[in-house]
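Good morning N.,

You mentioned wanting to compare the apo and holo forms, so I went ahead and generated the holo version with GMT. This is what I fed in:
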Amino acid sequence: MKIGIVCYPTFGGSGVVATELGIELSNKGHEVHFITYSQPVRLEALTSNLYFHEVTVPEYPLFKYEPYELALSSKLYDVISKHKLDLLHVHYAIPHAYAGYMAKQILKDNGYNIPIITTLHGTDITLVGNHPFYKPAVTFSINNSDIVTCVSESLKEDTIDFFNIKREINVIPNFIDIKKYDEKHKNCKKNIISKGDEKIIVHISNFRPLKRVIDVLKVFQIINKEINSKLIMVGDGPDKNKAKEYMKKNNLKSNVIFLGNTSQIDEILCSSDLFLLPSEKESFGLSALEAMALKVPVISTNIGGLKEFNIDDNFGYTSDVGDIKKMAKDSIKILSDSKLQQKFRDNALENAKKFDINNIIPLYEDIYLSLIHISEPTRPERIGDGGVCVKKK
Ligand code: GMT
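and this is what came out, ligand included:
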């Protein structure tokens, strides 16, 4: 199949999932075209069946806000017609589903039928998408996608609760490549990060307010009083300075490291003893899944997609949002009991295996095939610079 993928090219979960999906589809022989404003961070190499098309928005003095959706729709029209794509898979509703819908209409006007799959990831529904300024357009673009998928049962419920949805939503969970993580685990050089019996605790996020990074530091503060430990804060975002301030004020500087964004997540996780994720919203929790795959016990809140991992007493513990005391107590329990820690490490990997890439990618492929068969897209041929026409049989 020839597949177009639209996503955010950043470190965020939706971009990571979209990129890993595209890479795996290309490994399986599909031709994959990424269309976004810069090369996705996890897309390290382009191959003969893996393409990247950059969307640029020209500056113009009249524009207070640059019209990215317009540029993206035009680029989609261009790429889809030039490369004769079979389908377009957009990740994150805003503004991708909307731009995809517009591109579909422009192509339709030129006799080309392109099916659109929209995958909802979380904040596009639970935070930004239901703002009154966006809601009508988001509702419209969800209802007018050919297929809608979302990454957890919890996100499906939220989508139905928050929007007037007149269609089916398929749940396809996020995934990881267990084989890759297994190799990483075998070759892990733990002593690069920790000294002696020091325990390594890690948090990974985009430091947005909903990640509650101050809770991470408060939990660590309690742990650190009892356990020789170090906290590694991975990522970047709006609450980073607030977190650094807290660290300085509370004399945690010698035990907390802020790493910023990094592509070495696997190296850090495989050296870690505990993963902290005290978010108030998390539609899936990809970073928790990555931790599980690298055998790291998880302490998290009991919300959204995190509930669906079955963490409690299995490979970690969950708490209500903001219950710092319980999170710290549970962390200490794990870190001070090596038998429990080992049991949780093994269970974490066992649970992560359910989300192995080999179980999930075929679910997307099935959806793609069903759409192609229903839509039977005509394959137009490009003429001149802008126009397309239907290929003569
Ligand atoms: O967590 C974020 O704020 C980033 C956001 C994104 O769009 O990249 O993550 C969302 O999508 C991820 C991939 O599906 C999920 O693992 C995250 O749980 C989800 N974030 C939230 O729901 C807050």
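Residues 357-375 form the longest helix (19 residues).

Happy to go through it together on a call whenever suits you.

Best,
F.
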